[in-house]
Specification:
The chain has about 325 residues and is of the alpha/beta class. It contains nine helices and 13 strands. It has a nine-stranded mixed sheet. Strands 3-11 form a two-stranded antiparallel ribbon.
């Protein structure tokens, strides 16, 4: 097995975080925090040009790190964990929770995500941080390697092994709900970034990056774009989400606010043990209270407001 990739693991106490990809299907979540978000300046992404990690890589790397292992300090450099795991950032892990997040969108590698969740859920609480733009499990072919949790042998995760077709809104007959597949794989909880209260604001905040592009290249212009514009709401656009449609691309590149709320509802419907959290950044022009109402109506168990960083090192409400 190849050595752990730099940037594969990082810590935000008390959890250990996992980066599956640098690819994004909308504004990177790090960029939505604003142009002055200090963590983004220290974050070490997966190296460009390298093969993305397989589920086997992820499971081996997590199992090689001992609780309390610290990374490369405040500079965000990569450092070796006690068992050889490569961790960026600083702080310690309590050995309980592993979180799929990173610079890119984890659900763009759904089969690897599912296999890694299945391989880790026996020993840890697994959490997913996502933009909620991918609702369906796409056909196998571009997902990558997985690991059979019982044998440890490398294999590909298949929809029949991890999920069943869901009658969820906006899904076509025979399609598999990604939240259902994640629940079947053993996911403990999910955090969904909503970041808007109506469709016009969502398009301005989240649809700034071409689909499946590299988040490392996209992050700087995306941060500038999020801070730009008048921050207002387009007149005549209601503060309610229309019904999600099945026309959204499988990779989530055409997703709307309604589709993300449908993803939240799908997650709520499968009864994840740790529940469904929805977050929203207090970015200019975003009505956080209205976003909270939409999230709770969709079935979220909790709502959390994330700070907006307008100037490097400072927070702006």
């Amino acid at each position: 097995m190849r050595p752990p990739l730099p940037g594969l693991l990082y810590t935000i106490p008390p959890s250990l975080y996992i980066s599956l990809t640098n690819a994004v299907n909308g504004t990177p979540l790090l960029a939505t925090r604003g142009p002055g978000f200090p963590f983004a300046t220290r974050f070490v992404p997966l190296p460009r040009g390298s093969a993305e990690p397989t589920a086997a890589d992820v499971i081996a790397a997590v199992n090689s790190v001992s609780p309390g292992a610290s990374g490369g300090g405040g500079s965000g450099g990569s450092g070796g964990g006690s068992g050889g795991g490569s961790i960026s950032g600083s702080g310690g892990w309590d050995g309980s929770t592993v979180v799929f997040a990173g610079a890119g969108e984890p659900t763009l590698r759904p089969h690897v995500l599912l296999a890694a969740v299945a391989g880790l859920s026996g020993g840890y609480k697994t959490r997913l941080v996502t933009n909620g733009r991918v609702r369906r499990l796409p056909a196998l072919g571009s997902g990558g390697g997985g690991v059979a949790p019982s044998t440890g042998r490398a294999q590909l995760a298949t929809p029949s092994a991890v999920g069943t077709p869901s009658p969820s809104r906006g899904l076509l007959p025979g399609e598999v709900s990604l939240p259902q597949a994640l629940r079947d794989a053993g996911l403990h909880s999910v955090s969904v970034a909503l970041n808007a209260h109506d469709e016009a604001t969502y398009a301005r905040v989240m649809n700034l990056v071409p689909p499946a592009t590299d988040s490392v290249a996209a992050a700087t212009p995306a941060m500038d774009a999020v801070d730009g514009g008048d921050g207002g709401v387009v007149p005549g656009v209601p503060n309610t989400a229309p019904v999600a449609t099945a026309a959204s691309a499988t990779d989530g590149s055409t997703a709307t606010l309604a589709d993300v709320l449908a993803f939240v509802a799908d997650c709520a419907a499968v009864n994840l043990p740790g529940g469904v959290e929805v977050t929203c950044v207090e970015a200019p022009g975003v009505r956080v209270g209205a976003a909270q109402r939409l999230a709770l109506e969709a079935g979220a168990d909790a709502f959390r407001v994330r700070s907006w960083f307008g100037v490097l090192g400072t927070e702006e409400a």
